[in-house]
Amino acid sequence: MILATESEFSPDSDRIMSVSLGPQHPGAGHFRIRLWLDGDYLVRSEPDPGYVHRGEEKMGEYRNYTQNVPHLERPVILDSSNILLPYALAVDELMGNKVPDRAQYLRVIMAEANRIISHMYFLGIFGYFAGHTTMITWGMGDRDFWIDLAERIGGARVTFAYIIPGGVRNDMPGGLAEKGLKTCDWFDKRMDEYEKIFFRNPLVLGRTEGVGVLSREDAIALGATGTVLRASGVKHDLRRDEPYCCYDDFDFEIPSLNSGDSWARAYVALLEMRESVKIIRQAFKQMPAGPVRLKLGPQPRVPAGETYARTEAARGEMSYHLVSDGSPRPYRLKIGTPSFKNLAVLPHLLRNVHVADIPLIYWGLNYWPVEADR
Amino acid sequence: MAAAITRNFPNVKVDYARERRLKVTASPSEIRDVALFTRDQLGFDHISAVSGVDWIASNEFEVVYFVGSVSKPGYEDFVIAVAERVARDDPVVLTLIAVWPGAEYHERETHEMFGINFKGHPSNSHLILPEDWNDMPPLRKDYVSPGR
Amino acid sequence: MTVQKDGAVQVLVGKVNDVLQYAIGDPLRYLANWGRLYSLWPVHLETACCSVEVGAAAGSRFDIERFGTLEAFGSLRQCDLLIVMGTVTRKLAPRLKLIYDQMAEPKWVMAMGACAITGGLYFDSYNVLRGVDDIIPVDVYIPGCPPRAEAVIQGLVLLQEKIRRLPSLSGR
Fold first, then answer.
1. What is the maximum alpha-carbon separation in chain C?
2. Chain C closest CA to B5's CA: distance in Å?
3. Contact residues on chain A for B81, CB-CB shorter than 8 A
4. Full-model pTM
5. Based on the structure, what is the number of domains in chain A?
6. How high is the ipTM of this complex?
């Protein structure tokens, strides 16, 4: 029963209550959404980001190109390689570096492993918000096996600082290819179990099907990207449309669904993980030999110019606008993160729904507040 | 594509950064027509980012709108950068929300980081800076971070 | 003679107090602290990126629940552990103080990550507090960027040792 719609909304009416889904809440992250409620019904919402704004762009101008690598990977610490990859592409493009092939394959492996790690966290918390605790305990446990694989290559558990301008930092240790292939085989079987236990579960279907529907035209006009866009019927993925880092050597598909509801956004993530496993398998098998890093020196000088590089991170399109004036420090480093691009969808979807649907719609957009605030 | 733009807007500067990247620099008065043309005739429907650059040496701000296309086949990897330059002392530009609705939060962030006023924007409150920020906009070149 | 009698009474009362302390007070304090340290309840406040490692610590591999810390879904008045996970920005700082004030005594604070200890990697940013112990008192510092999940568990065990040795019954 619809009690109040947005057209009748007046904040002073005594039926409307204003509540904060604030930074301290089990159902929110480092983020605050202001809600205007009419009983059990949400009339309007307004996001309030900025609790983790650390000034990355200003700090980027104070550090040189090599020093920028550790702090630029912190915003989306879950798939830290995917936020460094467009930075490395932008700097390589301005400097005219030819990155060796083996380095590009290693970049692909790290990027896809990070995509799986990030999607497992996303699906785990999605299950937690739906009340499905098996999804979160299985999800976090299985994610640790992929973190182990990435740790053997990169050196730390989540922040590797591995993809740098000029290649990657070090070669992978011997014997890693067999371990990687074994992990891929095991994970394929595991994903079938996830489908049976979570995505075909009638309770989860009841809570997420038809909830928060985003139409195709709205998704395009609002600038949505990533799983949100692909779940609304647009088959757009930068790995296939604008191939970078030898992605055109691999054979994979772009999953997309047409319903645009919360279930579709979560299911697209599972389908993307299957494709990532395929890519990792091919990358391990086809890896060429050779060097992995160009010698750039401690303070690389980048010629003056301006570039815009973008890649497909786990959550969507990650882009860097890099303006350089010939000095060892960037002149302007603009980071365009997928969560900030998807932020416009949030108040559009959180309207005229029940309160119980809020966590699934909000988290279903795969919104990571640290990345949106930079 | 560059020819199509220069044919319709003769005062606009177009240059190629590299393949599949085009930068269109227009003046603030014709930016809305150029934007409408880019969206309707050329099919670029999807805003990717809005970035501001502070050229303190020439006393100007530059606002760049990066637009891409997800629905026009064959052009999914093309990015057009629609740019405009305004004077640093009185930076007022028109908002392009009517053309690309997704630009609302991007413009708000550029406003609070640089102090550029977007005429016609529905809300001017701080998006990611604290609400009680009373210093100058932080991404300007003459703002020095207190830790430095 | 009254002075002598009062002195003797005072010594007697002191001795009775000591006996009561050993017989009842100490075991009671030990029991109360034992109950507190094995039932810590953290507040669900994710401050910045270290929250991912706490999430991993609460997962199935590095299970933090076997040490007695429950999942963080309670209300603030029931929680007694505040883990500051990462960078504290100027926008979050007043809210953090508000949350700390709203928790009931006894309460403990763990500063996790380099950013919560001294500002870390973001020491020269315009929006970052250089260390959370400027605004709230901290009991345990866990270094790292981010600390590994095992380090989070080690920090928790250190906090449990500290609680075990608290001298008074009220938990301060």
1. 73
2. 42
3. 308
4. 0.89
5. 2
6. 0.85
